[in-house]
Amino acid sequence: MALAKSVYNLLFRRTSTFAVTIMVGAIFFERVFDQAGDALFEQMNRGKLWKHIQHNYEEKDEE
Amino acid sequence: MAALRVVVLSGSSRTFLNAPKTIRTPTANMSISSMSRSRKVALSTFGVITAGGAGLALMLHQSVKASDLELHPPNYPWSHAGPLSSLDHASIRRGYQVYKQVCSACHSMEYLAFRNLVGVSHTEAEVKAIAEEVEVVDGPDESGEMFTRPGKLSDYFPKPYPNPEAARVANNGALPPDLSYIVNARHGGEDYVFSLLTGYCEPPAGVTVREGLYYNPYFPGQAIGMAPPIYNEVLEYDDGTPATMSQVAKDVCTFLRWAAEPEHDQRKRMGLKLLMGSAILVPLIYYMKRHRWSVLKSRKIAYKPPK
């Protein structure tokens, strides 16, 4: 409760800091959400995506 | 709202809220509980007859389908069949090899370019090498002549025949369909294509197939102009996978699914993110709905009949 109160007083009380908090929060949330979604999708389809088999074919070219 | 306010202002709301249940309220005869017994019986009989008739009609309709001559393909457990399952890109790569070495002798894929393979089944260097093997007619040059050059990434897959008429002449009058969107263009999708490729058999007794046609129970009409295209060891895979008939058919079907639906993986990736977003938003919206409606759901309205 003390945390919620201090967050409110620090960030959400004034409209200016509230708006900045929402915008910065949106950027971080979007990045985290997107990367978490990609990681989950790649975990579920491990070994099937091009990303997972790419190294088999690139090493040959370099040799 | 106005009526409510009048009741509240008149100061008698408390008495109505605490009024005994014997208060007579006028009711319209519209609910089932207020119907007479005979009406209830009649209505439920009518409902049962209607539902039974609809069910019977549906059953009869189903049984009519049994006289169909067409053999519907079974559902195969594709590795990309799940709602969040991506395509197997190693299989796409093998499928492209099958297309190139087997199918492309007769079937074109005119909507696919070499560049589409980059980052899907081959590296850019590999696709450049594949494309350079193809002679492409380009031009005109400064003297107005057409010339041939090695293929580039931006070139489309070479066609086996210059036009449909030439394809018909070369194939006994049957036109090999373009395979770009074939999986979306046929009922049953990759199940159908897989069944067709592996489903060739001897015609049953009493069925004669015209010269130059082959019997395939999955093909509408059962007589197909395509000779059985794949068999065990029809080709040798670069990655050492044993090239059994079903393996070859499965790989080429996966390749054709990708060709018909290149956005497949991206679509399912976005679907997963949509579900994740919904998991956050739906409980919040449900809570908000309950919160907003709590005022309306918990109030009590008393009607004061006019004197």
UniProtKB/TrEMBL annotation, chain A:
One of its GO terms (biological process) is mitochondrial electron transport, ubiquinol to cytochrome c. Its main location: mitochondrion. GO terms for cellular component: mitochondrial inner membrane; respiratory chain complex III. It is a single-pass membrane protein. Keywords: Electron transport, Membrane, Mitochondrion, Mitochondrion inner membrane, Respiratory chain, Transmembrane, Transmembrane helix, Transport. Pfam families: UCR_UQCRX_QCR9. It is found in: Mitochondrion inner membrane. Belongs to the UQCR10/QCR9 family. Component of the ubiquinol-cytochrome c oxidoreductase, a multisubunit transmembrane complex that is part of the mitochondrial electron transport chain which drives oxidative phosphorylation. The complex plays an important role in the uptake of multiple carbon sources present in different host niches. Component of the ubiquinol-cytochrome c oxidoreductase (cytochrome b-c1 complex, complex III, CIII), a multisubunit enzyme composed of 11 subunits. The complex is composed of 3 respiratory subunits cytochrome b, cytochrome c1 and Rieske protein UQCRFS1, 2 core protein subunits UQCRC1/QCR1 and UQCRC2/QCR2, and 6 low-molecular weight protein subunits UQCRH/QCR6, UQCRB/QCR7, UQCRQ/QCR8, UQCR10/QCR9, UQCR11/QCR10 and subunit 9, the cleavage product of Rieske protein UQCRFS1. Component of the ubiquinol-cytochrome c oxidoreductase (cytochrome b-c1 complex, complex III, CIII), a multisubunit enzyme composed of 3 respiratory subunits cytochrome b, cytochrome c1 and Rieske protein, 2 core protein subunits, and additional low-molecular weight protein subunits. This is Complex III subunit 9.
From TrEMBL, chain B:
InterPro entries: Cyt_c-like_dom, Cyt_c-like_dom_sf, Cyt_c1, Cyt_c1_TM_anchor_C. Residues 90-242 form the Cytochrome c domain. GO terms for molecular function: electron transfer activity; heme binding; metal ion binding. Pfam families: Cytochrom_C1 (PF02167). Heme c binds at C103, C106, H107, M226. Its cofactor is heme c. Binds 1 heme c group covalently per subunit. Keywords: Electron transport, Heme, Iron, Membrane, Metal-binding, Mitochondrion, Mitochondrion inner membrane, Respiratory chain, Transmembrane, Transmembrane helix, Transport. It comes from the Eukaryota. One of its GO terms (biological process) is mitochondrial electron transport, ubiquinol to cytochrome c. Signal peptide: none annotated. GO terms for cellular component: mitochondrial inner membrane. It is found in: Mitochondrion inner membrane. Transmembrane segments: none annotated. Component of the ubiquinol-cytochrome c oxidoreductase (cytochrome b-c1 complex, complex III, CIII), a multisubunit enzyme composed of 11 subunits. The complex is composed of 3 respiratory subunits cytochrome b, cytochrome c1 and Rieske protein UQCRFS1, 2 core protein subunits UQCRC1/QCR1 and UQCRC2/QCR2, and 6 low-molecular weight protein subunits UQCRH/QCR6, UQCRB/QCR7, UQCRQ/QCR8, UQCR10/QCR9, UQCR11/QCR10 and subunit 9, the cleavage product of Rieske protein UQCRFS1. Belongs to the cytochrome c family. This is Cytochrome c1, heme protein, mitochondrial. It comes from Xyrichtys novacula (Pearly razorfish).
